[in-house]
Amino acid sequence: MGNIKKELLSKSDKELIKLLSPIAEGIAKVFGSNCEVVLHSLEDLSHSVVKIVNGHITGRSEEAPMTDRGLEILRKIDSNNIDSSVFGVFLEKTKNGKLLRSVTTLIRNSRGKPIGFLCININLTMSLLDFGKDFFMDSEGIELSDDREHFPETVQELIADAFEEILLKLNTENNISSIQRNKLIVYELLKRGIFDIKGAIDYTAHKMAMSRYTIYNYIREAKAKQATSKDADRLEKQ
After folding, report:
1. Whole-prediction pTM value?
2. Whose CA is closest to 162, among 187, 143, 128, 133?
3. 198-230 per-position pLDDT tens digit
4. Which one of 4, 48, 196, 208 counts the least CB within 10 Å of its CB?
5. 3-state secondary structure the chain
C-alpha cells in the first residue's frame, strides 16, 4: 500500500482529524440512532477508528481496524493517484445481516496527503417505526423551536427576511415614536448579528430611508447600552 500505510502523521494532521469529531457527532444527531459515523486515522490501520458514533450498528468501537472497503480505497488512491475525495455510495452487508448504505470521504491535510476517512453508514434494515422515532418524534436531544429558520439564497435576502420579521413584530407596538421604532429595528438587527455581514448597513439605510451616519449612531448607542447592561450584571454577581 506504499507510503500511505507506513508514514506517521504529524501533530497537525492528528489535530485536524480530532477537529472533525464534533462533525461526526453532528451528522449522527441529524440522522439518528440508525446512522453510524466513523472517523478513521490512517496512521495505524490495525487500530484506525479514532471516533465512532452509533457503533452498535456494526458492533465496532474506538481502536477497531480499517475495513476491507477502506483498504481497497487506499490501494486505489496509492496506485492510481486518484484525486477524488468521496467514494460511494456503497451497499454493504454486516455479519449480522444489516444492509448499510455507505459513503466514505477521504480527509487530506493542507499538502494534499491522505490522513483519514470520515465514513457514514445508514442502516437500511431499520423499521418504519424506528425511522419515525429518529426523524419525527420529540425524542431526547431534539430541540423544538417556535421560530422558523431562514434559508436565504443571497445576502440581500437574508437581511430582507430579518428586516421584515422585525417590522412584523413592531407592528403591534402602537405607542412608540418613529425614532424609537427605527432604533428598535437597528437594535434588533444588531442583536441578530446582521451588521456583521458586508453591505448590511447600506441596505438598512436604504430600506429605512436614512443616512449611514444615522445607522452608525444607532449602532453605537445600542452597543453602549449592551456594555452598560453587562457591567450591571457583573456588579450584581460580585
Report:
1. 0.66
2. 187
3. 888 888 888 888 899 999 999 988 888 877 665
4. 196
5. CCHHHHCCCCHHHHHHHHHCHHHHHHHHHHHCCCEEEEEEECCCHHHCEEEEECHHHCCCCCCCCCCHHHHHHHHHHHHHCCCCCEEEEEEEECCCCCEEEEEEEEEECCCCCEEEEEEEEEECCCCHHHHHHHHCCCCCCCCCCCCCCCCCCCHHHHHHHHHHHHHHHHCCCCCCCHHHHHHHHHHHHHHCCHHHCCCHHHHHHHHHCCCHHHHHHHHHHHHHHHHHHHHHHHHHHC
Length of the chain: 238
